[in-house]
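The data are passed on as follows:
___
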Amino acid sequence: MDFNLTPEQEALRQEFETFFSDIEKTAPENHTAKIDYCYEHDDAWAFHREVGKKLGQKGWLSLPWPKELGGKGLGQMEQLIFQEIRAYHRISGFDPGPVVAAAGVLERGTEEQKKKWLPLIASGETTWCEGWSEPNSGSDLASITATTGVEDGDDWVINGQKVWTTGAHRCSHMILLARTDPKAPKHQGITYFLTPIEGMRGIEVRPILRMYRGHSFNEVFFDNFRVPKKNIIGEVHKGWYVLMAGMDFERTGVAFVAESRRDFDELVEFIKENGYDGRSPAEVAIVRHRLAQCQIELETWRQWAYYVAWLQSKGAHVPGESSAVKRFGSELMVKISQVGLDIMGMYGPLKEGSKWARLEGRFEYACQHDLGMTIAGGTTEVQKNIIAWMELELPRK
């Protein structure tokens, strides 16, 4: 792998840097790149929507798509550069539309579907959530049975329940998985739908409130919710394979690297400038060692994410590598948030809004939020199983 950017990539990086640096100056107070924060706060959500539309106007939501389909025709490396700089400047951007939904349409959609869905996604006018997990099917997503689809004329009628649906109360559209053949093996008999949900009949969104504050998760109930047949991506009963087209790209996660890097950089500056009894924490050996280890692991994570993107840019299918990056990175996020909380001492547990809070209470929030990243997008245990099956060729049982 060549770690050097091409002159064209470097010019693009500078363009991204200038744009997002300017955008960050207009962000609401205490804004963060964590999309959950946007779902929780009205001003943050409005800002997120505004930025999304600007990105759509610049064509940056469709960087790696073919030019003939409305994209820039760039590669995965350019996409990663974009995601990294965006997230470092705390501009939230994880919307499964341009990544997961678009990947499914690009890989398995008909020409008519590409003409319909890709411009909508690329415009930034739509926002997307993932109607995947169910009360008894989360990590083992292929086992979904609670949401069913039955063919009825030109539609499929959806009934059942989804849970932990992040952003369903805010988003306009959903990537929906439904069991359409109850007799098929679990990885079969699933159909992949794209559908509007905002203002639609037959769907109810109920909030799941978290203990530590905020509302980003939801339960979603379907009661004879109708989805046109033309909204099925890929073949009926073979939606699992459409879903897999987008998951490898979701799991590389360079944006999460950049989020953690920004928090870490601010933590380092904080301890240089603050101390007690005339002594800076930066002079304490254990503090220096813990920060040094975080620095090593952050750079490892970043290079690994770029390596996986480079493999993908060469056409490689790398589920094992993607899972390894996801596992390593999500656990490192937890580690960094805990290191930050510890090093900040009594300031660490103070929440955003407290007059005594430092760094806007980011590490208090991160300590509670980032633990969930070891579950979101596939648990650590699931990632290890994928690595065992795909990379080590170990038996599944």
